[in-house]
């Protein structure tokens, strides 16, 4: 009989990245990008298993070298979430953590906090994280996804536009008005299966943000606030910023 897991982490990684093909194996401070992400996930104490879901044998070999299982998935998935869902179907688990394969600075403590929320508060279908945007002018950057949430921490909307809109521009906006969404998602397994079975909604297509599909179908998403965001590697130019962040984090440990 298969072991039943409370929470597992799945790292989606494909070779044919539009802006940076093969980035999973790009060297950052002497180690492949995917290795950094695996090691962060392995450090999270509340994940009972870490898996890499990929469509490429080279990435699978790098994952196995790090001591984690690699699941080969279809090459035609439209998103990392679809790839995670295919791999998740193989494991009896209550909560699935979708850990982005291009964020080498993701904090293990944040992963643990998100898992804790999902296991303790059954009302949430999903959980994710957000950090204050600083400096505030960065809020206009469309590459940063913004999120607004209610007093309970339930997500109301995600957008590439700076939300909320500031009507009165005569004074400085209050601190912690704009929140940057951090791309880590935790799903209840049943909701994940439902999510990927639904077609993209109009808002998702307009914003190019798949989490809007979850809101569209009535999903309850918990936003966990954190002080520090993570650095993603989308292009070769992002490697320097990731290396600087990893070096800085090492000095403060």
Largest sheet features: 7 strands, mixed
- Strand order, main sheet: write it out: 5-4-1-6-10-7-11
Helix fraction, binned, reads 25-40%
Number of helices: 8
Structure notes:
With 253 residues, the protein is α/β, with parallel strands linked by helices. Helices cover 30% and strands 24% of the residues. The protein has eight helices and eleven strands. The chain has helices at residues 33-43, 57-65, 80-88, 108-120, 189-197, 202-207, 211-216, 239-252, and strands at 5-13, 27-28, 31-32, 49-54, 69-72, 93-99, 126-132, 146-149, 155-159, 179-188, 221-225. It has a seven-stranded mixed β-sheet with strand order 5-4-1-6-10-7-11. Strands 2-3 form a two-stranded antiparallel ribbon. A hairpin with a 2-residue loop joins strand 2 (27-28) and strand 3. Helix 3 crosses helix 5. The longest helix has 14 residues, at 239-252. The chain is globular, with a radius of gyration of 18 Å.
Labels describing this entry:
globular, seven-stranded mixed beta sheet, two-stranded antiparallel ribbon, single chain, 253 residues, alpha/beta, 8 helices
SSE layout and pairings?
Elements: E1 5-13, E2 27-28, E3 31-32, H1 33-43, E4 49-54, H2 57-65, E5 69-72, H3 80-88, E6 93-99, H4 108-120, E7 126-132, E8 146-149, E9 155-159, E10 179-188, H5 189-197, H6 202-207, H7 211-216, E11 221-225, H8 239-252
Parallel strand pairs: 1-4, 1-6, 4-5, 7-11
Antiparallel strand pairs: 2-3, 6-10, 7-10, 8-9
